[in-house]
Design brief:
With 923 residues, this protein is of the alpha+beta class. The protein has six domains: 99 residues, no CATH class; 101 residues, Nuclear Transport Factor 2, Chain: A (Roll); 314 residues, no CATH class; 159 residues, Immunoglobulins (Immunoglobulin-like); 130 residues, Immunoglobulin-like (Sandwich); 50 residues, no CATH class. It contains 17 helices and 43 strands. Strands 1, 2, 3, 4, 5, 6, 7, 8, 9 and 10 form a ten-stranded mixed sheet that branches. A six-stranded mixed sheet has the order 22-30-37-32-35-34. Strands 29-39-38-31-36-33 form a six-stranded mixed sheet. Helix 9 crosses helix 10. The longest helix has 21 residues. It is globular and about 115 Å long. It starts with 27 loop residues before the first strand and ends in an 11-residue tail after the last strand. The N terminus is likely disordered.
Length: 923
């Protein structure tokens, strides 16, 4: 959903307006021991507001200058980056005219809310011991020391960039577990391995080597001339993964496919696709387009494909290695163009064309992003399953470029950059995995059973960040743990749905969130748990800016389950069904909350609300109650939360908040103990729709905010209910029917935010086969549609009638609804003679828009076969009868509408029969 499609609203605080909404654990402010404000977090954007995001940041920096100690630092703005929903401004600290590396203040604002949501202060306040720039050696004086480590194993080494800067020596880049093809562990160990914590004046150098080609960062002390450390600038994946569409192992679920497979084995997995390339030059077409060019620049030499026609169709490797070029080009181009559709302004503005060598690394099992080259380069090795044949590796390397273009540094393969580089391609790939094979294997083909190189690079790990043995976990394991949490966020956002359109929408949302997160979270190259926590919280803050926190609770649940932080101390919920204990997201059905119920009489009359739900009575006040549970470990304080209730006309396709009307708000005046619950109410309202309820209740407060307080609407209401346990819904239309009797109701199918192609599923599988269901609705819904297990019984210029039998699942597929359309459907159920007494039979209508579920409505019918103790209304005469009435034998099945209480029938306009119920006859 683009920004222009959502409604801008001011996010709502809880009953205590000065408390920030706890969307993430670190909400609020953190000061160090010296009183310096080091971190400010308000993802709910409720503590301050300006006319625009830039002014919000400027106002914050000015108002909090003394708290930040910005008045004691030389801060200069060096970067302003706009994502899809956030603005990031970075201020670099300078001292004596030189930058202090790593000493930055980063402020992020929510563009829609025009409010600062996060500030990270990495300023360096102790600079008294800083050397004077006049004492620094020239770069020529340190060149020998900087290049000496490369003389043994490289043909040439030259400095192509130098920056004189200050640097507090507190950390070192992580070391790989084994040698890279172009950089040994021994080389990367050179220099002063133990940080001394002092402020150094350094030459921060970039070095290019040939024989083999590589880029390195070399840091040399500018005063002593000694080498501090060497860091690899290229971004590696120690993997080799094959993807066709998406890859042979995923498509076939055949784990025996491997690097030993022949072209004859692999050719059946090729699929015809199209991609954009440049026009022919001198009649020759090449794999060269807007964003990528296949270019042979690394060993071994292999001439890139050049064709007389724009057709690059080859047998697979090992028979024809040109297939690797076509495969790499297509998937790189597809991923780049896809990412550009997600609306990240900074990424789209910085993205540049990349040179790709799909047959590189002299047959090594490695691939690499080299962003320091001009243009940037990617090279894919051919060891094992060639990397250029695999979507996972291909996209992984390109995501390193996404980090670079978003100005985010998170440690490459040595830290959690790899978590995103693994999870993002897996989430993107899932839309092509129609059979759902091996979804959590990041590299199903490359890391196959025969060529397996890792048991850790997966997205279904059970290890947690709070495990006692965390410090012994490898870098790859830690990366995959965070990757697993990101994957589980995707599942919670809809990636676990059987509906393909829902999965695609969830993937788009999660990938968009991860990219926005990179603009929010400060740089960190460590593999500490704190770094992973920072990125996880950054995802929730990004979602708050992008959607108003629609997915914040399901992401929080995923991160809690991975041990990144503990569950919120106060965690309130309203059950979505009889089996729901506060899960986020909740399952299906989510519209049958037992914690929302109606009573016909006020408690002051002596009515006991704990007796449970009563069918609402029209045109007189009814009384709604809500039960709120606390699954947290702390008591919810009295006055800290409120409950608001809503109603909506029954139907499907309901949008929040468009189709809902508030019934009122009550502050919870009693504390809710941990593990306990409280009843809230009554809320008075006068229903107008016979025998229907669509009721929603929301509990909200700063310590456990409801997403309805911040969400950018309108959104499908099922997401509000399923994605937040603070929200409950009761959407059942209870009906009773005698054998052969008729049950009638009207529901509304609603259009979305734009015109959509629709499907309507009518599930009568739980009803006995002798039940007959008729639906009368607009002819424009029926005429263009394909009908399954439905018969057209009547057609008209305006309305038509279709019928189906019980025991079936029918489908109306292919109609069109305009934006905000409203189509009513009158449903009549001729009930079964075979039904069991007092058994409940559900009839479920599900509406789809463009393939995605947008609503379900349940008509729940209770069979009445033993007639004693029931009252029966005759819709024709308006009279109520009992089965001992002398006129009973003359009543047909359609003239016997059951009621458990005579009061229910009287409230619905019936009059007592003069013969069998004279005491209720009014003449």
């Amino acid at each position: 959903m683009g920004r222009e499609d959502v409604r801008k609203q001011r996010n709502r605080s809880g009953p205590k307006a000065d408390e920030p909404l706890r969307l993430v654990p670190d909400v609020g402010e953190r000061k160090d021991s010296g009183g310096v404000l080091r971190k400010f977090v308000d993802p709910g954007a409720t503590l301050g507001r300006a006319s625009n995001a830039r002014k919000a940041i400027d106002s914050f920096m000015k108002a909090r200058s003394k708290d930040l100690k910005a008045d004691r630092m030389d801060l200069r703005e060096v970067d302003s980056s706009e994502g899809a929903a956030t603005l990031r401004v970075r201020f670099q600290q300078f001292h004596k005219g030189l930058p202090v590396l790593g000493a930055t203040v980063q402020a992020v604002a929510d563009i829609e809310q025009a409010s600062v949501v996060q500030v990270d202060n990495g300023g360096e306040l102790t600079v008294a011991d800083a050397p004077d720039p006049s004492e620094a050696r020239d770069v020529e004086d340190v060149e020998r020391v900087a290049l000496a480590p490369f003389r043994k194993d490289y043909e040439t080494a030259t400095i192509f960039k130098d920056e004189l800067a200050y640097l507090r020596d507190t950390t070192r880049p992580g070391l790989p577990d084994e040698d890279y093809p172009t950089a040994s562990v021994e080389l990367l160990k050179k220099g002063k391995r133990k940080p001394d914590g002092t402020l150094h004046l350094v030459h921060d150098l970039s070095v290019e080597t040939t024989g083999p080609f590589e880029h390195f960062r070399v840091v040399v002390d500018a005063i002593s001339g000694k080498l501090l450390w060497i860091e690899l600038l290229g971004k590696y994946v120690t993997a080799s993964l094959k993807v066709f569409v998406p890859d042979p192992v995923t498509e076939s679920n055949d784990g025996t496919l491997s690097s030993a497979s022949t072209a004859a084995d692999l050719n059946p997995f090729r699929h015809d696709v199209q991609a954009e390339i440049a026009t022919a030059v001198n009649g020759i077409f090449q794999l060269d387009g807007d964003w990528f060019r296949c270019n042979d620049w690394d060993t071994p030499a292999f001439a890139q494909p050049a064709e007389n026609t724009a057709t690059f169709s080859y047998e697979t490797y090992p028979k024809n290695r040109a297939f690797l070029s076509a495969n790499a080009y297509y998937w790189l181009d597809a991923v780049a163009r896809y990412l550009r559709t997600l609306g990240n302004t900074e990424l789209n503005g910085n993205m540049e064309k990349v040179d790709v060598d799909p047959q590189a690394y002299d047959f090594e099992d490695q691939s690499e992003w080299i962003g320091s080259a001009t243009p940037p380069r990617i090279r894919f090795g051919e060891g094992g399953v060639p990397d250029a044949a695999d979507l996972g590796v291909i996209a992984h390397e390109y995501v390193h470029g996404v980090f670079q273009w978003l100005g985010a540094e998170h440690g490459g393969s040595g830290a959690y950059e790899h978590s995103v580089c693994d999870a993002l391609p897996a989430i993107y790939r899932d839309r092509f995995n129609l059979s759902g094979h091996r979804r959590t294997e990041t590299f199903p083909f490359d890391n196959n059973a025969s060529d397996q190189w890792s048991t850790e690079r997966r997205l279904d790990l059970t290890q947690r960040f709070d495990d006692p043995g965390f410090n012994s976990y490898s870098r790859n394991l830690r990366n995959s743990m965070l990757g697993t949490a990101l994957w589980r966020c995707y599942l919670g956002m809809g990636g676990d749905s059987p509906d393909a359109a829902v999965r695609v929408a969830a993937a788009d949302a999660m990938i968009k969130t991860m990219m926005e997160m990179l603009l929010i979270v400060p740089d960190d190259i460590t593999s500490s748990a704190a770094h992973a926590v920072s990125m996880a919280q950054g995802c929730i803050t990004a979602d708050a800016a992008l959607t108003g926190g629609l997915y914040s609770k399901v992401m929080d649940e995923a991160f809690v389950n991975q041990g990144l932080w503990a569950r919120r101390p106060v965690d309130l919920y309203i059950s979505d069904s009889a089996t729901d204990l506060g899960a986020q997201p909740s399952g299906v059905p989510f519209w049958t909350s037992p914690d929302i119920w109606v009573r016909n009489n006020h408690i002051s009359t002596g009515d006991n609300p704990e007796l449970g739900h009563e069918a609402p009575i029209n045109n007189q006040p009814n009384y709604l109650y809500v039960r709120v549970h606390n699954r947290g470990i702390q008591q919810a304080a009295a006055g800290g939360f409120q409950v608001e209730t809503y109603r909506c006309d029954p139907g499907t396709g309901m949008m929040w908040p468009t189709h809902f009307q508030s019934l009122g708000t009550l502050v919870i005046t009693a504390p809710i103990p941990a593990g306990g619950s409280v009843r809230v109410g009554p809320f008075a309202w006068t229903p107008q729709i016979v025998d229907h309820e669509c009721l929603v209740a929301v509990v909200h407060g700063a310590q456990d905010p409801a997403i309805t307080a911040t969400v950018n609407g309108p959104v499908p209401n099922d997401r509000i209910v399923r994605f937040d346990n603070n929200v409950g819904q009761r959407n059942v239309a209870p009906q009773m029917a005698a054998p052969g009797g008729k049950t009638r109701m009207t529901i509304t199918l609603r259009g979305g935010l734009k015109a959509t192609d629709g499907s309507w599923e009518l599930d009568a599988s739980a009803l006995p086969e002798d039940t007959r269901i008729s639906v009368r609705t607009l002819s424009r819904m029926i005429e263009p549609a394909t009908l399954t297990d439905l018969v057209v019984k009547e057609t008209g210029a305006v309305r038509s009638t279709i019928e189906m039998n019980g025991g079936k699942v029918a489908l109306v597929d292919g109609y069109r609804l305009d934006a905000d359309d409203h189509v009513t459907a009158e449903i009549t159920i001729d009930f079964s003679h075979q039904a069991e007494h007092l058994r409940r039979y559900p009839f479920v209508a599900t509406q789809y828009q463009d393939g995605a579920v947008v609503g379900r409505m349940t008509i729940q019918i209770t069979a009445v076969k033993e007639l004693d103790d029931f009252f029966f209304g005759n819709p024709r005469s308006g009279e109520i009868h009992v089965n001992t009435c002398p006129y009973w034998p003359k009543l047909g099945p359609g003239s016997k509408v059951p009621f458990m209480r005579v009061e229910d029938a009287l409230a619905r306009g019936y009059n007592g029969c003069a013969y069998c119920l004279p005491e209720h006859n009014t003449g």
